[in-house]
Amino acid sequence: LPELTGDLDTILEWADEFRTLGVRANADNPEDAELSRGFGAEGIGLCRTEHMFLGDRKQIIQTFILNDDELIREKAVADLYEAQVGDFYGMFKAMDGLPVIVRLLDPPLHEFLESPRELDVGIAKLEVSGASADVIAEKRALLEKIDGFAEQNPMLGMRGCRLGIVYPILPVMQVRAIATACARLQKEGFAPKPEIMIPLVSVLPELAKLRGVAEATIAEVAEAEGVELSIPVGTMIELPRAAVTANEIATEADFFSFGTNDLTQTTFGFSRDDVEGEFVPQYLAEHLLPYNPFATIDPGVAKLVEMGVELGHEGNPDIVCGVCGEHGGDPESIHTFNRIGLDYVSCSPYRVPVARLAAAQAAIQQR
Ligand code: PEP
Ligand code: MG
To answer: Where does the chain show beta strands of DSSP type E?
Structure first.
């Protein structure tokens, strides 16, 4: 793994003496976690668990979503549970002694279900190649089911906490895996510090319900494993409604992490998936702003973050507030977050050194 050495390491150590903003990393595998740690990350601010559900596991999610049969669903979840215990064990061990915020599954469903268009093409090819009627019928049935789930705007649909509200068996599985990995490491003499984060919350009852599920599951594991578990539960603030009602939401949150990617998308009403496309970047640059608001925090979005922090403290004076959108690694945005009074920024591993430096510069300039 690359490491910081020589003058750069020394300069960043000096920077650390001045900065007041914490710097964490966004990572979802032990290698990236170790890499971030080597770059000076003080924890993992965002572990995107949907990234752990790629490859074969993607198929398991599809099986789960498309099947009404309880037994098939339970089998899929049991398979996922086994895999997740290992995932979390590796993450917590790599970050021994430092906080790791694990975000519960936040997959827009179109990323987990087979593409209807590709399936359709596949069926046409099967027909041409003279495949058996049974095979073709099976594919057609699959296509029909997937079509039934297709949403016009998957990024505004069944994702984030909404998935866990509809299928509580999923958050139970993930929290059980987090708590079990934590318990095992504690018994082995390590000091794991997991935290659980609920994504895409817009109203208090969503968080309250999933927090309840998480707490009950943690308590069950603690009893079964015969250990004490202390695992904070918090939420992403990534929808304007959550930011402006943060005083309510904070009553059920130990921490807030501002998801400025989605917050920018939903505040402007521009799709974040089209920033690389034709219209959005051109329109933004020609008619709206001299910067890309998905890279550098926009003052309007920053105002929502500031409001969220202030209101959040009204609802819970001890709430810890950070940011884990892409802006967390952008120097200009870091100056804004420092002024707003966030506790930490979390960014991709390779941005950690730059974030440490920018946080120190912001602290010095804003003294
Ligand atoms: C965000 O929305 O800013 C965020 C960090 O979550 P994700 O990018 O995974 O949607
Ligand atoms: Mg998000």
So the answer is: 22-26, 44-48, 99-103, 193-198, 233-237, 255-258, 320-323, 344-347
Q: For ligand 1, say whether the CB of 160 is within 6 Å of any of its atoms.
A: no
Angle 352-365/6-18 helices, nearest 10 degrees?
Answer: 40
Q: Which of 26, 46, 344 to mutate to test the pocket of ligand 1 (most atoms within 8 A of CB)?
A: 46
- In this prediction, residue 2 carries a pLDDT of 79
Cα–Cα distance list, 298 to 138, 268, 311 (Å): 49, 10, 20
Q: How far is the CA of 38 from the centre of ligand 1 (A)?
A: 24
273/125 Cα distance (integer angstroms): 30
**According to the model, what pLDDT value does residue 280 have?**
95
Residue 346 CA to residue 336 CA, distance in Å, equals: 14
pLDDT of residue 149: 84
Q: Cα angle at 315 between 155 and 262, to 5 degrees?
A: 15
pLDDT at 361 over 90: yes
In Å, how far are 53, 99, 196, 245, 328 from 36, measured between CA atoms? 22, 13, 20, 33, 14
* Range in 110-114, 141-145, 294-298 with the lowest mean pLDDT: 110-114
What ipTM was assigned to the predicted interfaces of this complex? 0.99
- Tell me the pTM: 0.96
